[in-house]
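User: Second chain of the day. Same drill as before.
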Amino acid sequence: MTYARAERAALSDLLAGLGPDAPTLCEGWTTFDLAAHLVLRERRTDAAGGIMLSSLAGYAARVQESLKAKHGYAGLVELLRSGPAGIYRLPGLDRLVNTAEYFIHHEDVRRAQRVWEPRELPADFDETLWKQTRAGTRVFLRKSPVRVVLHRIGGGVAIGGPKDTPQAEVTGTAGELILFCFGRQSHARVDVTGDDEVVAKLMDASLGT
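Assistant: Same format as last time:
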Protein backbone atom coordinates (compact mmCIF):
# COMPACT_ATOMS: atom_id res chain seq x y z
CA MET A 1 0.00 0.00 0.00
CA THR A 2 1.28 3.46 -0.90
CA TYR A 3 1.55 6.16 1.74
CA ALA A 4 -1.16 8.11 -0.08
CA ARG A 5 -3.57 5.21 0.38
CA ALA A 6 -2.43 4.53 3.93
CA GLU A 7 -3.07 8.16 4.93
CA ARG A 8 -6.45 8.07 3.17
CA ALA A 9 -7.43 4.94 5.10
CA ALA A 10 -6.22 6.33 8.43
CA LEU A 11 -8.02 9.63 7.86
CA SER A 12 -11.22 7.80 6.92
CA ASP A 13 -11.04 5.77 10.12
CA LEU A 14 -10.45 8.90 12.19
CA LEU A 15 -13.32 10.77 10.54
CA ALA A 16 -15.67 7.85 11.10
CA GLY A 17 -14.70 7.68 14.75
CA LEU A 18 -14.99 11.41 15.47
CA GLY A 19 -18.28 12.12 13.73
CA PRO A 20 -19.35 15.13 11.66
CA ASP A 21 -18.99 17.92 14.22
CA ALA A 22 -15.37 17.55 15.33
CA PRO A 23 -13.00 20.48 14.77
CA THR A 24 -10.20 20.61 12.22
CA LEU A 25 -7.30 22.98 11.62
CA CYS A 26 -9.02 24.22 8.45
CA GLU A 27 -10.52 27.50 9.62
CA GLY A 28 -14.30 27.32 9.91
CA TRP A 29 -14.49 23.66 8.88
CA THR A 30 -15.73 20.68 10.84
CA THR A 31 -14.89 17.11 9.92
CA PHE A 32 -18.09 17.09 7.81
CA ASP A 33 -16.80 20.04 5.77
CA LEU A 34 -13.38 18.47 5.30
CA ALA A 35 -14.85 15.17 4.12
CA ALA A 36 -17.00 17.04 1.59
CA HIS A 37 -13.99 19.06 0.42
CA LEU A 38 -11.95 15.93 -0.26
CA VAL A 39 -14.78 14.23 -2.14
CA LEU A 40 -15.35 17.40 -4.20
CA ARG A 41 -11.65 17.62 -5.05
CA GLU A 42 -11.64 14.13 -6.56
CA ARG A 43 -15.17 13.64 -7.87
CA ARG A 44 -16.40 17.08 -8.96
CA THR A 45 -13.85 18.40 -11.41
CA ASP A 46 -16.30 21.09 -12.45
CA ALA A 47 -15.98 22.65 -8.99
CA ALA A 48 -12.47 21.63 -7.94
CA GLY A 49 -11.00 24.75 -9.52
CA GLY A 50 -12.66 26.75 -6.76
CA ILE A 51 -10.17 25.29 -4.29
CA MET A 52 -7.44 27.44 -5.85
CA LEU A 53 -9.29 30.16 -7.78
CA SER A 54 -11.19 32.78 -5.80
CA SER A 55 -13.42 33.49 -8.79
CA LEU A 56 -14.80 29.94 -8.54
CA ALA A 57 -14.78 29.66 -4.74
CA GLY A 58 -18.48 30.48 -4.39
CA TYR A 59 -19.49 27.72 -6.79
CA ALA A 60 -17.18 25.25 -5.05
CA ALA A 61 -18.72 26.13 -1.69
CA ARG A 62 -22.22 25.51 -3.03
CA VAL A 63 -21.21 22.17 -4.51
CA GLN A 64 -19.55 21.22 -1.23
CA GLU A 65 -22.79 21.89 0.63
CA SER A 66 -24.76 19.92 -1.95
CA LEU A 67 -22.45 16.93 -1.46
CA LYS A 68 -23.10 17.09 2.27
CA ALA A 69 -26.85 17.13 1.68
CA LYS A 70 -26.77 14.33 -0.91
CA HIS A 71 -24.46 11.83 0.77
CA GLY A 72 -24.51 12.68 4.45
CA TYR A 73 -21.43 12.37 6.60
CA ALA A 74 -21.16 8.59 6.60
CA GLY A 75 -21.62 8.48 2.83
CA LEU A 76 -18.86 11.01 2.24
CA VAL A 77 -16.47 9.14 4.50
CA GLU A 78 -17.15 5.91 2.60
CA LEU A 79 -16.61 7.65 -0.75
CA LEU A 80 -13.32 8.94 0.61
CA ARG A 81 -12.37 5.50 1.89
CA SER A 82 -13.19 3.81 -1.41
CA GLY A 83 -10.06 5.20 -3.01
CA PRO A 84 -9.00 7.77 -5.58
CA ALA A 85 -11.54 8.73 -8.23
CA GLY A 86 -11.47 10.47 -11.58
CA ILE A 87 -8.06 11.49 -12.88
CA TYR A 88 -6.51 10.50 -9.54
CA ARG A 89 -6.88 6.87 -10.61
CA LEU A 90 -4.18 7.35 -13.24
CA PRO A 91 -1.08 5.29 -12.44
CA GLY A 92 1.26 7.22 -10.19
CA LEU A 93 -0.91 10.33 -9.94
CA ASP A 94 -2.47 9.34 -6.63
CA ARG A 95 0.96 8.89 -5.08
CA LEU A 96 2.26 12.11 -6.62
CA VAL A 97 -0.51 14.50 -5.61
CA ASN A 98 -2.27 12.79 -2.70
CA THR A 99 0.57 11.74 -0.41
CA ALA A 100 1.08 15.22 1.05
CA GLU A 101 -2.61 16.14 0.65
CA TYR A 102 -3.83 13.29 2.82
CA PHE A 103 -0.96 13.53 5.29
CA ILE A 104 -1.74 17.21 5.87
CA HIS A 105 -5.49 16.73 6.19
CA HIS A 106 -4.99 13.70 8.43
CA GLU A 107 -2.94 15.96 10.70
CA ASP A 108 -5.56 18.73 10.36
CA VAL A 109 -7.98 16.42 12.12
CA ARG A 110 -5.53 14.83 14.56
CA ARG A 111 -4.05 18.11 15.78
CA ALA A 112 -7.38 19.86 16.22
CA GLN A 113 -8.35 17.41 18.95
CA ARG A 114 -7.69 18.01 22.63
CA VAL A 115 -4.92 15.41 22.95
CA TRP A 116 -2.43 14.57 20.23
CA GLU A 117 1.25 13.88 19.70
CA PRO A 118 3.33 13.98 16.52
CA ARG A 119 3.68 10.66 14.77
CA GLU A 120 7.07 9.10 14.17
CA LEU A 121 6.96 8.49 10.42
CA PRO A 122 8.83 5.69 8.63
CA ALA A 123 12.11 6.89 7.15
CA ASP A 124 11.00 6.45 3.54
CA PHE A 125 7.75 8.35 4.21
CA ASP A 126 9.76 11.18 5.76
CA GLU A 127 11.99 11.17 2.68
CA THR A 128 8.99 11.27 0.35
CA LEU A 129 7.52 14.25 2.18
CA TRP A 130 10.89 16.00 2.13
CA LYS A 131 11.21 15.56 -1.65
CA GLN A 132 7.78 17.11 -2.11
CA THR A 133 8.59 19.92 0.31
CA ARG A 134 11.89 20.70 -1.35
CA ALA A 135 10.40 20.59 -4.85
CA GLY A 136 7.57 22.94 -3.92
CA THR A 137 9.29 25.32 -1.52
CA ARG A 138 9.18 28.32 -3.84
CA VAL A 139 5.47 27.84 -4.44
CA PHE A 140 4.54 27.03 -0.84
CA LEU A 141 6.46 30.05 0.48
CA ARG A 142 5.61 32.49 -2.29
CA LYS A 143 3.45 34.58 0.06
CA SER A 144 5.98 34.64 2.86
CA PRO A 145 6.99 38.20 3.79
CA VAL A 146 10.51 37.01 4.68
CA ARG A 147 13.20 34.70 3.38
CA VAL A 148 12.81 31.20 4.84
CA VAL A 149 15.51 28.55 5.18
CA LEU A 150 14.12 25.09 5.92
CA HIS A 151 16.42 22.67 7.71
CA ARG A 152 15.28 19.07 7.71
CA ILE A 153 16.29 16.98 10.69
CA GLY A 154 18.21 14.11 9.13
CA GLY A 155 19.66 16.24 6.35
CA GLY A 156 18.52 18.66 3.70
CA VAL A 157 18.03 22.38 3.20
CA ALA A 158 15.49 24.26 1.10
CA ILE A 159 15.02 28.00 0.67
CA GLY A 160 11.96 30.05 -0.27
CA GLY A 161 10.39 33.44 0.17
CA PRO A 162 11.49 36.77 -1.30
CA LYS A 163 15.16 37.46 -1.81
CA ASP A 164 16.82 40.45 -0.14
CA THR A 165 14.52 40.30 2.89
CA PRO A 166 15.26 39.37 6.52
CA GLN A 167 15.66 35.65 7.06
CA ALA A 168 14.14 33.09 9.40
CA GLU A 169 15.37 29.54 9.95
CA VAL A 170 12.87 26.70 10.40
CA THR A 171 14.07 23.29 11.61
CA GLY A 172 12.08 20.09 11.90
CA THR A 173 11.30 16.72 10.39
CA ALA A 174 9.96 16.62 6.85
CA GLY A 175 6.38 16.08 8.04
CA GLU A 176 6.52 19.08 10.35
CA LEU A 177 8.13 21.26 7.71
CA ILE A 178 5.50 20.51 5.09
CA LEU A 179 2.77 21.30 7.61
CA PHE A 180 4.51 24.59 8.35
CA CYS A 181 4.79 25.42 4.65
CA PHE A 182 1.08 24.74 4.17
CA GLY A 183 0.00 27.33 6.70
CA ARG A 184 -0.10 25.23 9.84
CA GLN A 185 2.73 27.23 11.46
CA SER A 186 1.31 27.30 14.98
CA HIS A 187 0.59 23.56 14.95
CA ALA A 188 3.86 22.31 13.45
CA ARG A 189 6.50 21.05 15.87
CA VAL A 190 9.40 23.04 14.47
CA ASP A 191 12.08 25.35 15.81
CA VAL A 192 11.84 28.84 14.28
CA THR A 193 14.75 31.23 14.80
CA GLY A 194 15.50 34.75 13.67
CA ASP A 195 14.73 38.32 14.66
CA ASP A 196 11.56 38.45 16.77
CA GLU A 197 9.75 40.69 14.29
CA VAL A 198 10.77 38.51 11.36
CA VAL A 199 9.58 35.35 13.12
CA ALA A 200 6.27 37.01 14.04
CA LYS A 201 5.66 38.01 10.41
CA LEU A 202 6.40 34.48 9.23
CA MET A 203 4.16 32.87 11.81
CA ASP A 204 1.23 35.12 10.77
CA ALA A 205 1.71 34.70 7.02
CA SER A 206 -0.70 32.80 4.75
CA LEU A 207 1.58 30.09 3.45
CA GLY A 208 0.88 27.34 0.96
CA THR A 209 -2.29 28.95 -0.40
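The mean pLDDT is 93.

User: Great, on to the next one.
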